[in-house]
Amino acid sequence: MEEPLDMNKIVGSHHILMVCLDTLRYDVAVREQETGGTPVLNRYGKWRKCQSPGNFTYPSHQAFFAGFFPIDEEIRDMKKREKLFFSEDVGMGRKAPEGAFHFHGPNIIQGLEREGYDTCCIGGVSFFDKRTELGSVMPGYFRHSFWQPGFGCQVKDSASRQVDFAIGRLARIPEGQKILMYINISALHYPNYFYLPGAKKDSVESQEAALRYVDKELGRLFEVFAGKGDTFVICFSDHGTCYGEDGVWYHGVNHPIVNTVPYKHFLLKKNSKMTE
């Protein structure tokens, strides 16, 4: 976006869609961007190279839901990070920075609910699956939360199932009602080898194949949101994952590949028609 973003003009006038591409590596996202493997996501600008606030799903999301999204890699002074949402309760001053929306409540979800938003979570990985007490913590921030076994990372068509469910949910939202939807896309997480024909184990290449699959599904979701009204989209990964680099497998440890994530935000205009 060329003009500085003012979230005070977004909140209340736009739907808000948060898409977490769980476990997506920055290098994978950029390679598919540059080779044309993600035509839907490419429509909305290039990925920003960012630092994640955590090295696995749970700590990263607790930060996100408090308003601390990934920050640009070159940032060294936390006060210079871009702030979309701001709480006066975190010891960073009492006045919201210019362009940030000052929310009230324990997290941005409940803060936006106080502003009249209907809030909805569509889970994916186990921290959102609601079958355990731990898996119910973050879904509990939302007014409505959903999880099905078919949304999990071991199901090859999980993203299409999640998007189908999200579209069905949107169809039931009354005209004029603003919605905050969070969707945790699980397909990039392990296992993802089955997206690459013939593969027997996860790899950079299989995650690339998984991202190409997810990109096709996101096109449908974005189009339906645009039909509902102007929508602000925050699209990001919560952490990367290693496939043997420096002897490291997967995530939950600090490694540059784990700590570096892709991030972008953009606007969908009401009734804008997506074209290839």
Can you put this structure into words, describing what you see?
By secondary structure, the protein is of the alpha/beta class. Helix content is 28%, strand content 18%. The chain is built from 8 helices and 12 strands. It has helices at residues 7-10, 26-35, 39-42, 57-65, 108-114, 158-171, 204-228, 256-259, and strands at residues 15-21, 48-51, 71-72, 85-86, 101-102, 118-122, 144-146, 179-185, 231-236, 242-243, 249-250, 260-268. An 8-stranded mixed sheet has the order 3-2-12-9-1-8-6-7, sandwiched between helices. Strands 4-5 form a two-stranded parallel sheet. 41% of the residues are buried. The model has no long low-confidence stretch (mean pLDDT 93).
Task: Fill in the keyword field for this structure.
globular, 276 residues, 18% strand, 8-stranded mixed sheet, single chain, two-stranded parallel ribbon, alpha/beta
